[in-house]
Write a structure and sequence with these properties.
By secondary structure, the protein is an all-alpha fold. The protein has one domain. It contains 8 helices and no strands. The chain has helices spanning about 1-35, 35-50, 65-90, 100-135, 135-150, 155-175, 180-195, 200. Helix 1 packs antiparallel against helix 2, helix 1 packs antiparallel against helix 4 and helix 4 (about 100-135) crosses helix 5. The longest helix is centred in the middle third of the chain and has 33 residues, at about 100-135. The termini are far apart.
């Protein structure tokens, strides 16, 4: 039994290292030279779900935990969002400009992107790290570090995703629902883009895109 458990843990370690390295490689190089590698990573991640027999609820799907998750993200999102709205207004923006039809459509699209990010971050990384570390707090901090690492070199997103990744992972462990996490990320990320100077966050871009280059040589 111990041998079987250790092999499962070793497999999880290998999976985490492969996917993390793959995501970093894709951001910095492969998106230009082998864009279909994103599909390879996604297929690999889904295959691990079958290997570890992850249940539907384990992955964060379904309605279970939705309302509880919404309640848990509501206060942090409201507090952070309020600060960012005030910052945006202080920079000359107006509340009406934040609620235009274009902004709301953009928020919907961004929510879909955040849902995909949370799927990879929580359904895959958080579950594997919990299996490896056997401790929710340590797994959440490690997940936050992974989330921050893939946002290098953006000086705004790295600290935000580190702390946000930790908080959202803790909420995921207690609720097992991805929707509140993606919604909170979408709201905060959208407000960050308009509240802070673009010279700080470069349009929330990461990797070579942060430097304004199509590719990093």
């Amino acid at each position: 039994m111990e041998h079987g458990v250790s092999m499962i843990v070793l497999a999880a370690v290998g999976e985490v290292l492969f996917v993390f390295a793959g995501v970093v490689a894709y951001i910095w190089r492969l998106q230009f030279t082998f864009p279909d590698f994103a599909i390879v990573l996604l297929v690999f991640i889904v295959a691990t779900f079958f290997l570890h027999r992850d249940g539907f609820q384990d992955l964060g799907f379904g309605s279970r935990g939705l309302l509880v998750g919404m309640k848990q993200v509501a206060m942090p999102a409201l507090l952070i969002g309020s600060v960012l709205v005030i910052a945006a207004i202080a920079r000359g923006g107006s509340p009406q400009a934040l609620l235009t039809a274009d902004k709301l459509v953009g928020l919907g699209k961004y929510f879909a992107w955040c849902l995909l990010q949370q799927f990879v971050l929580q359904s895959f990384f958080a579950n594997r790290l919990l299996l490896i570390l056997k401790d929710e707090r340590r797994a959440a901090w490690m997940n936050g570090a992974i989330f921050a690492a893939v946002h290098i070199p953006n000086p705004v997103l790295v600290p935000v995703t580190f702390l946000g990744g930790y908080l959202l992972t803790r909420i995921f462990f207690s609720t097992r629902n991805l929707v509140p996490l993606a919604l909170a990320q979408a709201i905060v990320g959208s407000l960050l883009a308009v509240a802070l100077p673009a010279s700080w966050h470069h349009g929330l871009r990461v990797g070579p895109g942060y430097f304004g280059n199509r590719r990093f040589n």
